[in-house]
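Project standup — Tuesday

K.O.: blocked on the structure for the chain from last sprint. Re-posting the sequence here as requested.
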Amino acid sequence: MYSALIIIQYVTILGLMVESWIIFHRWKTEEHSYLFLCCIAALITNSGYLKEMLSHTEEGYMFGLQLSYLGKVWIPFALFLYTCKLCNINLKLWIKSILSAVHSATLLIVMSSKWHELYYTNVHYVEYGLFPHLVHGNGIWHHFYMGLLVFYTLFCVSNMIIALFKEEDIKTRKKIFLFMMVWIVECICFLIYYLKISKVYDTTVIGYTIMMFIMYVAIFRYNILGTAYLAKDYLMEELAEGIIAVDNKGKIDYYNKPIKELFPSIVQKPEEVLYLIRQTVMFKKTIEKNDRVYRPEMNILYQDNIVAGEVYSLHDVTETFNNSKELEKQKVIAENANKAKSAFLANMSHEIRTPINSILGMDEMILRESQEDDVKAYATHIMTSGKTLIAIVNDILDFTKVESGKMEITPTQYDLASAINDLVSIVRARAEDKGLALNVKVNEKLPSLLYGDEIRIKQCASNMLTNAVKYTKKGHIDVTFDFREGTDESSIYLIFKVKDTGIGMKEEDIERLFSPFARLEEKRNRTIEGTGLGMTITKELLDLMGSKVNVTSVYGEGSEFWFEIQQEIINAEPIGDYETRYKNEINHNGKYRELFHAPDVSILVVDDTETNLAVIKSLLKKTQMKIDTVSSGKGAIELFKNNRYDIAFIDHMMPEMDGIETLAVMKTMEGGWDTIFIALTANAVSGARERYLKEGFDDYISKPVDGIKLEKIIKNYLPIDKIIEVDEEDIVDETERSDSEIERKILELRKIPELSVEDGIINCGGEEGYLNVIEIFHRTADNKAREIEESYKTGDIENYSIRVHALKSAARIVGAADISQLAKELEKAGKSGWMEFIDKNNDTLLDMYRELDSKLEFLSEQNEELPEIKPEMLKDAYNTMIEVSSIMDYGMMENILKGLHKYKLSDEDAEIIQKVADCLLKLDWDGITEIVKGRLS
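H.V.: unblocked you, prediction finished:
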C-alpha cells in the first residue's frame, strides 16, 4: 500500500508539471492565469506531501508539511476564481483582495505553528502507521479556514448548477460539469480526511490527482485554452454567415460550418484561406462565391482588456451589392431634385420678399414721418400684417431646411438683456391686445453677455410665446428667464419657460404638436392663424443645439413650455433688475432715432426694383450719408468708375448682370479693394450667407430690410473717424406735440401714492397714451362712482357687479392697483351673493375711488384749452366706430379714441367715449355698436 501511494505521488507530480507547462505555453487570458495558479499550487502541494511520506525525522517531516501548505492554501482560491469566471460572476477587486489576504494569513500561521496553537493544538510527531505523521488537535484558525473552504464549495457548486440550466451550448455545459466534478471530488476527499476515516493518509492528495486528469480532459477535449469560445459569443451577437477565430500567433483556432462550405480548402490549406480573407478586408473588397457576394470584417477579440486573438466574420451582402447601382441612380436623382428645390425656394423667396420689402419699407417711412394719427394707425396695421406674412414665409423656408437637414446653428456673442427685451416687446403688444397680463420674471444674476446662436434661441422662445398668446383667451402668461450652472465655470444652462392659462392640450395631442402642418382640434381653433410649423421647427432647432422642448399641459386650464440650453459666458457681470430697466426704456419704445450721422460717407445701393432703392434711401436719409442708387449691374459699374464709395449694397438677382457678376467686376476696378461689399438680397434659403461670403462679399443682409439693422451693419464697417455719435438732444422732434406738457403732467401723477405710473405707461403703450386714458378715468369718475353707489343702495347686485368689474379694469390700466384689487374682490362677492363682504367694503371702495379722483383734478385744468369738436367730425367718428366694430380692429378703435381725447367733449359724449373704452377692454364689439348707435339715435 505504501509503495502504491508513493507511485501515485510521483505520477501526479509529473502530470502536474506537464499540465503547468501546457497552460503556461498557451497562457492568454485571466482564466488561464487561475488555471496556472491552481496547477502550480497542486504541484507544490504534492511535492511537499511526498517529502512528508519519505521523511524519517521530525525536522524533515515539518519541512515537507510547510512546503505542502505553501501550495495547499492557494488551490481552493484559484479554483474559486476560475469557477466565478466560468459562471460569469463578476467579483469586485476588494473581494479578491480580502480573500487573498485570508489565504496569505493562513500560510503564515501554518508556517509559524510551532510558536502558537492558532492552527494546530497539542502537536505530536509519531512514526507508527504506514508512514510518520502528526497527531494534533485543531485550533480556531483551522476551524475558520475549513468554514471558508465549505463556503467555496457550496457557492461554486450551486452557481455551476444554475449555469448548467441556463447554458444551451453542449460543450460549454460539459465543461461546467467537469469543473463541478472537481469540486465534488475534492469535497468528498476532504470529508474522508477531515472526519478521520483515513487516519494517516491525506485523501485530498488523491483529489488533486483526479483534478489533474479532469483538467487534461478539459484542455484537450473542450479546448479551454483556445479562443473558440470567445468567437462563439461574438458570432451570437453579430449573426455572421461565417466565422474564423485566430489566436495571437496567427493560427486558425476555430472556424464554423459555413466557412468550411465556402472554403473547403481550409482543412488542408488554412493559411491560404486566411491570407485571402485578410487581403479582402485590407483593401475593402468583397468575395464572390456560389453566386453570392460576401463582405468580410475583422474584429479584435478581447478578454478583460487583454487581446485574445482576432475574429473574421463574413456577411452576405448579395442584395445590397445587386442594388448598389440602382441606389446610385436614386442618389443622383435625389440630389438633382434637391438642387431644383433649393433653386425654386431661392426664386420663391426672392419673388415674395421683394414686394414685401417695398411695402414694409414705405410703410416704415409713413410711421416715421406722418403726423396724422389715423394714417399712422393704418400704417401700423400694414406693418403688423406684413410682418405676419414674412413670418409665414420664414416658417415655410425654415421647414424646408429642416427637411433637407440643412438647418444651421451660427453661434455669436450677444447681449442677453437685449435679447430678452426683443422677445418681451414682440409679445407684449399682442398680449395686451387680447387683454392678457404678461408677467416677466428675469433672474437678476444671469450673465449679461453670452455666446450662442441668439437668432435661433429667440426664434424658439418667440414660437412658444406666440403660441401662448394665440391659444389663451383670458388670464395671464408667465415668462421666466433663469439659469443653472453649466458643465464648467465658463458656461451656464439658460432656462426659458412660458406658462399660460389657455385652452391646454389633451395628453394624446402633445406628440402631434410637433408634427408639421398639424393643428390640434382644427374645428375648435379654426380662427387661430399660423402654418402649424412653429413647434416642429422649434423642436428641430433645439435638437441641433443639444436641447429639447419640454411640455406639460392640463386640458382646459393651460400649458407650460420650457427648454434649457448651454451657453458660454463672455461677461459674467449680472444682468441686474430687468423690470426697472424695461420701464425706464418704455418712453423710447416706438420712437425712431438714427444711430449716427456720417456726412463724409458715400454709399452705393444697387437693386433692380425702384421701390427697394427708394426704401433704403429713405431709411438712411437722417444719417446724413451721401447715397447713390442704381437699378442695374452695368449702371453700378459706371458709377463705380467715377466715384469712391465706402460701402456698396448689391442685390443678387438682377437681369442681364446679377450681383455676383457685378461684384466680380468691381473687385478688379480701382478702389474695389477699399470698398465694403454687402449682399442685399431676398434669397434667405439655407446656405445663402456662406455662398455670398465665398463669392467675395464682406457681409449679408436679407430683405425686407430692417432700418435699425441696416444702420447697425453700416456703423460696424465705417471708420470711427467718420461716425458722429447722436445724443438725444441732437435729434429734432418733428412732431407737434408738447412734450413739456406731457412731462409736467406725468411728473404730477408720480406724486400720487395710489398710482403706479410706470405700470400705467406700460399698459397704455407710452406716456401720451397713458395721459389720454387717465384723463378719461378722471372725467368719468364722478358718474361711475355714483352709479356704483346707486346700484348698491337699490340692491341691484347684478348691475353692481358689472360696474365694479368695469372699475377693476379701468383702475388696473391706470396703475391704481389697490382700487383694482378691492373692486375685483367686490365683483366676486357680488357674483356669489356675499352681501356681508359688500356691506363692509363698498364704502371703502368709493372713498378710495373719489379720493384718487380728487387728486387727479389738476388734469382738468387744461381741458378748457382743448378745441371744440365739430358736430360733423364727432358724427363721423361715431360712424367709423360702428364700421371698425364690425371688423373687430382693436388698434384702429384705440386710435379713434385717442384722437377724440384731443378735443373738448360734452359730459354726455365723454361718458359715451368712456363706455366705448370699457367695452373695448372687454373686446365687447356688440356693446360698442349698441352704445354708439344709441348715441347717434
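K.O.: great, moving the ticket to review. Residues 86 and 816 are 81 Å apart (CA to CA). The two ends are 138 Å apart (CA to CA).
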